[in-house]
């Protein structure tokens, strides 16, 4: 019995020791979120354009910066062996990580290539990378444009005026599973909620995740 207890204790210690690092093959969710070994990781200290977001283009017009960010992330990590140093959790209980592929800091690269902002509300680690991208007018810095946190806030403010009890996140059920769509999702307007099927509205992403829904994948 003592041997069994000691063995279990060693396993527990090993699990705890590994808890600060997550490694495995990566899949892309969007421009700042990936899956590593099946676990969702939000990249620490950066904020990429949302999937349906467009940014101002140099000269005039707009470009699909959200789609471009997702594709840039795919080039860096998709089907690659990724190691993420876990830096805690965000407000929605998602893991936050600094992720690397072959020694390349993915968080930093996304910012330095102009595909994401340094998320200075929470961390200043990637401000130098952002300054580099801004000086070279790369990506989102080619013209003044709305950052993703303002884009989300704008979409939320409009949607909550019409949503039941001011809870605008749509919890859809389809053949792909239980997927929630916040107001900035490209599929938001076409997603209809049928409460008779078990679909529902959520007041926050954290509430949706806790109830068993997941965010949409854009790859």
UniProtKB/TrEMBL annotation:
Domain TNase-like residues, every copy: 19-143
Protein origin, superkingdom: Bacteria
Pfam families attached to this UniProt entry: SNase (PF00565)
SUPFAM superfamilies cross-referenced by the UniProt entry: Staphylococcal nuclease
InterPro entries: SNase_OB-fold_sf, Staphylococal_nuclease_OB-fold
Keywords tagged on the record: Signal
Stretch forming the signal peptide: 1-19
Protein name (Swiss-Prot/TrEMBL): Thermonuclease family protein
């Amino acid at each position: 019995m003592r041997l069994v207890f000691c063995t279990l204790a060693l396993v527990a210690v090993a699990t705890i020791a590994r808890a600060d690092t997550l490694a495995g093959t990566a899949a892309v969710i969007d421009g700042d979120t990936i899956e590593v070994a099946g676990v969702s990781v939000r990249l620490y200290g950066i904020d990429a354009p949302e999937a349906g977001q467009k940014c101002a283009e140099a000269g005039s017009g707009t470009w699909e910066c959200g789609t471009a960010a997702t594709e840039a992330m795919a080039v860096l990590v998709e089907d690659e062996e990724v190691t993420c140093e876990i830096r805690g959790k965000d407000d929605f209980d998602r893991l936050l990580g600094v992720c690397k592929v072959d020694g390349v800091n993915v968080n930093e690269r996304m910012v330095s290539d102009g595909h994401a902002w340094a998320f200075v509300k929470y961390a200043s680690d990637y401000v130098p990378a952002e300054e580099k991208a801004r000086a070279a007018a790369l990506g989102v810095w080619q013209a003044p444009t709305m950052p993703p946190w303002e884009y989300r806030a704008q979409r939320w403010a409009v949607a909550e005026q019409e949503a039941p009890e001011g809870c605008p996140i749509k919890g859809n059920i389809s053949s792909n599973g239980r997927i929630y769509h916040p107001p900035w999702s490209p599929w938001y307007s076409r997603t209809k909620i049928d409460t008779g099927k078990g679909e529902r509205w959520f007041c926050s992403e954290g509430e949706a995740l806790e109830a068993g829904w997941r965010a949409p994948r854009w790859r």
